[in-house]
Amino acid sequence: MAYLRWRRFLELAALDRPWVGETFIRDRHKGPTVSPAEHWNSEYQAGTYRRLLLSDQRHHHRLLAGLVAEHADQPRVLEIGCGEGAFYDSIRPFRPARYLGVDFSAQGVDMARRRLADNLRPGVVDFEVGDGKRYAVDEQFDAIVFPECVEYLGDPIALLEHYAGNLAPGGVFGVTQWLGLTPLRIWRTLKARTEIVDEAVVSAAWGGAWQVWTCRLR
Ligand SMILES: C[S@@+](CC[C@H](N)C(=O)[O-])C[C@H]1O[C@@H](n2cnc3c(N)ncnc32)[C@H](O)[C@@H]1O
To answer: What pTM value is reported for the model?
Structure first.
């Protein structure tokens, strides 16, 4: 816990001072983070990501859901990288008029469908298998969210540009990511090219912390 808090201290200091992160934080990631769907399938099958459903792992989902709901009553939401549907648990109390969760892991989507079977309504609440880098859907959404997955989806600006046509007027992109050196680089890339609507860091008592923000392309 003490180590995590020390890391958080450095990462918070690095939010707007890149040199702090680059000097004092050891980067565990070497190069881009790309894992094929098969990797995620076996992780979901092994139950590795069951922990993401635990209450103290989802504060960032709750905050993002609240921010999204402030922009639109009963928001229409597209979630990329939905996995087992953990974010749906947080947006559901806001009674989204439309929710579409997409993940390229067929195993993750299957588990979401089974876990949330009582909530599924075709055309209203759906989970679909698709590659989040290039998923195409002919619908408008009040929010397009990327909880804890933007680092796996390639160039973040190209990603938002791909989905820009799916944002309804006044709509927002929403991102959450684990607070860390590589995610901080993504944050700075996006911050330079977007209008940030809201930004926050949310911490759990056990030492975990996530960045949460909503934005629009400039
Ligand atoms: C750390 S998990 C986060 C799951 C969920 N969003 C959450 O917050 O609990 C990352 C997710 O991104 C998905 N993912 C990674 N690359 C993807 C891609 N190219 N297209 C769609 N989903 C992808 C993985 O399958 C996995 O479900």
So the answer is: 0.94
